[in-house]
Design a protein that fits this description.
Distance between the termini: 168 Å
Structural class: alpha+beta
Number of helices: 11
Helix content: 40-55%
Number of strands: 13
Strand content: 15-25%
CATH class of the largest domain: Alpha Beta
CATH superfamily of the largest domain: Band 7 domain
Length: 367
């Protein structure tokens, strides 16, 4: 009625009646505007790496796959795009300012060296869920306080260490992710810190820094996943990775010297074991060789003696049958072996008037 009264007022001032035509024109314009608004608020697009969650008056209605979809217009239904196929990351103890070949990170030492701008500090504080209303000169202190609160931990043997780690995760249930947790990112951060502090607090400083890093990563992923499943967050933890685990900066040089000395000690032990492993088997092998050689020589002598005895017995049997022939045979065989070893030989003729030494033609003479 207000539009009609307005048009009637215009017509009275101009002296013309535009009421019916104007009302039709305005009605058509309103209809077109409403139609365009309905179409604009009822069409939505879901990217390929996401899933759409449609809410009707704030309640869950349905989930939609990637593509173009329709929903009820004019805020009757609203659609939220959830990146269910995208791997997301939370960082603890540091922040990545620029990823790539020339990566830039935000750490406490970078803040102290003033290698970070105030904008980066303000962004980091905001992303951490903290509110800061002080002057720009206090930004650095606030950022350092946040980072130190994340990476400083106490081990089971009452040592302080600095732990930096990341958590990579995916959204496996978009409905649970949106409706069961108010702030999923902050929930992941709180749960991850609780799990990591529990693991570090149950172990020693050596386990946290050296031998236990792999076990801590696996245990942290399992415990964090179990905790998030209990909260029904709809989040799947892909990996928990320890970026660094070191003693505090002030004692790090002394700790490195101790590690260096331990490494040198282990190196000397390994070298000694190497010499031992080379010398002992070699000596044992040589001893075994001598033993086997002696055994072979003994077997050879025994077998030869047994052969000589058997040969002697055979000859003795023949000797008893024909002693003269056997004696003559033994003499000839002996002479066959002895005569070639005599360097100079003289032949003496026996018997007769002409007996004596036979003349020898000296073929070796040089004359």
């Amino acid at each position: 009625m207000e539009i009609r009264d307005f048009l009637d007022e215009i017509a009275r001032h101009r002296g013309k009646d535009y009421g019916p035509l104007a009302r039709k024109t305005v009605g058509a314009a309103i209809f077109v505007i409403l139609l365009v608004a309905a179409l604009a608020t009822s069409i939505y697009t879901v990217p390929t790496d996401s899933e759409g969650v449609v809410k009707r008056f704030g309640r869950y209605s349905r989930s939609t796959d990637p593509g173009i979809h329709l929903k009820a217009p004019f805020r009757i239904e609203s659609a939220t795009v959830v990146p269910v196929r995208k791997i997301q990351k939370e960082e603890f103890g540091f922040r990545t300012l620029k990823a790539g070949v020339d990566s830039r990170y935000l750490r406490v030492e970078d803040i102290e060296a003033r290698r970070v701008s105030n904008n980066d500090l303000a962004r980091m504080i905001s992303q951490s869920g903290e509110r800061f209303s002080g002057s720009s000169g206090l930004l650095a202190d606030a950022a350092k306080e946040i980072l130190r609160g994340e990476y400083i931990m106490l081990t089971g043997d009452l040592n302080i260490i600095d732990i930096e780690w990341i958590v990579q995760y995916k959204i496996k249930d978009a409905r649970s992710y949106l409706f069961n947790v108010k702030e999923p990112g902050q929930t992941i951060r709180d749960a991850s810190q609780a799990v990591m502090r529990l693991l570090i607090g149950n172990g020693s400083v050596d386990e946290a820094i050296t031998i236990g890093r792999g076990a801590n990563e696996s245990a942290a992923r399992e415990m964090l996943q179990k905790l998030l499943d209990e909260y029904e967050t709809g989040i799947h933890v892909e990996v928990v990775k320890l970026q660094s685990s070191n003693p505090p900066m002030k004692v790090r040089p002394a700790f490195n010297e101790v590690n260096k000395a331990l490494q040198q000690k282990q190196q000397k032990i390994n070298e000694a074991r190497k010499g031992y492993n080379e010398a002992v088997p070699k000596t044992e092998g040589e001893a075994l060789k001598l033993v086997e050689t002696a055994k072979g020589y003994a077997a050879e002598r025994v077998n030869k003696a047994l052969g000589d005895v058997a040969k002697f017995n055979k000859i003795y049997e023949e000797y008893k049958v024909a002693p003269d022939i056997t004696r003559q045979r033994l003499y000839l065989e002996t002479m066959t072996k002895v005569l070639p070893t005599i360097p100079e030989k003289w032949i003496i003729e026996q018997g007769g008037a002409d007996g004596g030494i036979l003349l020898k033609l000296d073929l070796d003479s040089q004359k």
